[in-house]
Design the sequence.
């Protein structure tokens, strides 16, 4: 009897791990695909930057906050009572990152903004080295220099075109740094989820902007795009991407996140007829290639450690 049951237990354990891997890949992929139309919808909204930021933060903030209060009441209440330093840093950095993201999408090409923002893991590695005393490997040094080369090529194209594009690139760099800070804060407090902090940060962002805008002065088409963005895409993307690392490695999550920087510029090219420019394409290819190569190495290393 024991001989007959042992193979079944091993098989079920293997299938359980395989199911977790598939589940993590599916959830993260859906989350990344949900965030791809984000930049397109922001560009289609005929409103000023602060108004777009207000609604993009408020609607998802309300939905996420209600969701965590209903399904994760105790962890949410404990977080609100004592968010600790990591929680406060996450809330502030995520708030500024939301504003910088909208500024970047509005003031530069979608391709330039997303290629630059995709370098956030590099800044996260540097910040983790400074504040968490984590070592920077030779792989990360190669990644940093390669990505900086790509950013330099993208910035060169922006400087040669319009000065406002350069401002958008700087905002994209700020968004990447804010994302890196929030990732580092979340990593330093891995014992609890930062999803409640996302809701708090979004509500805080909209509250700070409210007094400087007329939020209801929008076109009918703007309301359609804002509702699609705030009710569907942003909450789904935020929750699924935050859930993915529970089932797959951070290297796999980082590799899948590059889908946004790859697909969104192509989508903008077809829908908005926005040609990003040859320098942006070249710089983006350099950035994406370096990050893909780096993440593949990290993924192989993590699999060797597991084995």
Sequence:
């Amino acid at each position: 009897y024991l001989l007959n049951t042992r193979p079944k237990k091993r098989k079920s354990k293997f299938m359980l791990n395989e199911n977790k891997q598939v589940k993590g890949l599916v959830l993260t992929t859906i989350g990344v695909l949900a965030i791809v139309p984000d930049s397109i919808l922001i560009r289609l909204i005929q409103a000023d930057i602060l108004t777009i930021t207000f609604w993009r933060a408020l609607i998802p903030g309300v939905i996420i906050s209600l969701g965590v209060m209903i399904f994760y009441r105790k962890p949410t209440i404990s977080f609100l009572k004592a968010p600790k330093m990591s929680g406060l840093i996450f809330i502030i950095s995520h708030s500024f990152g939301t504003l910088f993201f909208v500024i970047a999408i509005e003031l530069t090409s979608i391709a330039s903004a997303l290629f630059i923002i995709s370098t956030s893991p590099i800044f996260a590695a540097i910040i983790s080295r400074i504040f968490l005393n984590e070592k920077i490997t030779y792989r990360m040094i190669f990644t940093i220099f390669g990505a900086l080369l790509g950013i330099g090529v993208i910035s060169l194209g922006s400087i040669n075109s319009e000065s406002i594009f350069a401002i958008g690139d700087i905002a994209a760099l700020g968004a990447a740094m804010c994302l890196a800070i929030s990732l580092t804060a979340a990593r330093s407090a891995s014992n609890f989820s930062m999803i409640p902090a996302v809701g708090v940060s979004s509500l805080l962002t909209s509250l700070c902007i409210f007094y400087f805008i007329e939020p209801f002065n929008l076109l009918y088409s703007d309301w359609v795009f804002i509702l699609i963005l705030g009710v569907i895409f942003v909450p789904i993307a935020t929750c699924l991407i935050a859930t993915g690392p529970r089932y797959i490695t951070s290297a796999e999550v980082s590799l899948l996140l590059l889908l946004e920087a790859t697909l969104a510029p192509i989508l903008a090219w077809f829908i908005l007829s926005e040609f990003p420019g040859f320098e942006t394409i070249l710089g983006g290819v350099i950035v994406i290639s370096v990050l893909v190569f780096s993440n593949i190495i990290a993924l192989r290393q993590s699999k060797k450690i597991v084995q």
